[in-house]
């Protein structure tokens, strides 16, 4: 599916292996071009997108089941400056980071243009209701529906609500690894639907959390702003040194086997 979409949009992309995660080396605009093309296709296939930061890459590297679940995505985009720096260290520099919140906003603009249906799944009841209300004003041509909570992957009531709505887009804000697991195990119930895990994006769109000021974004320091404004994130930030250590190990291994990052032929 992704190969055909890339070909149709004249987008050339390399697969960049960072800790075993097969990132697509594309920009935000290129990812949106693929989504626009997908919207126009007459297909029952879905489009599953993962926006992976260093925490997600590190967890996938350490957890084989999670690696399987994200590797099945049609697109894996680099959400975080840590991924971009790692790709440079590995000698396979990617074009640019693709912040998940910016990609989601671009997808909502496409959905608004084409009068699509969008389901917002996850986060707290108050947050998702507030998010839905604000997005409905910002994107008046979209039909929104929402369901709060960090649901179990096999929650049949939630799944039925989703199926009855027949969404064009499903944004899942349950945090990793649950959001990717929910998509992986349930997307086969749907036809021609775009799925993406969006972490804490509902908090930003609802206005509960401010996105980093422009200066922090330009300097690729959003992660620092988040820690400064939410000290609960400090514990999560300790994953970064472990991620970089594993990247160093990958560099060392590839130095003595320069083709190790390429998949073996079956």
Automatic annotation (TrEMBL):
- Give one Pfam family, short name only: Glyco_tran_WecG
Keyword list, A-Z: Glycosyltransferase, Transferase
Q: Where does the record locate the signal sequence feature?
A: none
Among CDD domains, the record links this protein to: Glyco_transf_WecG_TagA
NCBIfam families documented for this protein: wecG_tagA_cpsF (TIGR00696)
Name listed for the protein in its UniProt record:
WecB/TagA/CpsF family glycosyltransferase
Species per Swiss-Prot/TrEMBL record: Macrococcus armenti
């Amino acid at each position: 599916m992704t190969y055909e979409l890339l070909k149709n949009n004249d987008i050339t992309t390399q697969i960049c292996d960072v800790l075993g995660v097969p990132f697509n080396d594309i920009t935000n605009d290129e990812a949106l071009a693929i989504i626009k093309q997908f919207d126009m296709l007459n297909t029952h296939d879905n489009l599953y997108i993962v926006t992976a930061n260093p925490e997600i890459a590190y967890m996938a590297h350490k957890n084989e089941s999670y690696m399987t679940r994200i590797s099945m995505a049609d697109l894996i985009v680099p959400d975080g400056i840590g991924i971009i720096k790692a790709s440079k260290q590995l000698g396979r520099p990617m074009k640019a980071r693709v912040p998940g919140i910016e990609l989601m906003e671009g997808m909502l603009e496409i959905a608004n243009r084409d009068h699509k249906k969008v389901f917002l799944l996850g986060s707290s009841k108050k947050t998702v209701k507030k998010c839905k209300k604000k997005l409905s004003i910002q994107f008046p041509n979209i039909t929104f529906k929402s369901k709060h909570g960090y649901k179990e992957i096999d929650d049949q009531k939630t799944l039925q609500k989703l199926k009855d709505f027949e969404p064009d887009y499903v944004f899942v804000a349950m945090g990793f690894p649950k959001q990717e697991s929910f998509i992986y195990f349930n997307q086969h119930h749907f036809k021609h639907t775009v799925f993406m895990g969006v972490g804490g994006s509902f908090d930003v769109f609802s206005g509960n959390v401010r996105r980093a000021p422009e200066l922090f974004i330009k300097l690729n320091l959003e992660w620092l702003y988040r820690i400064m404004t939410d000290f609960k994130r400090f514990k999560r930030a300790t994953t970064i040194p472990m991620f970089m250590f594993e990247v160093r190990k990958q560099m060392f291994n590839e130095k003595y086997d320069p083709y190790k990052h390429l998949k073996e032929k079956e």
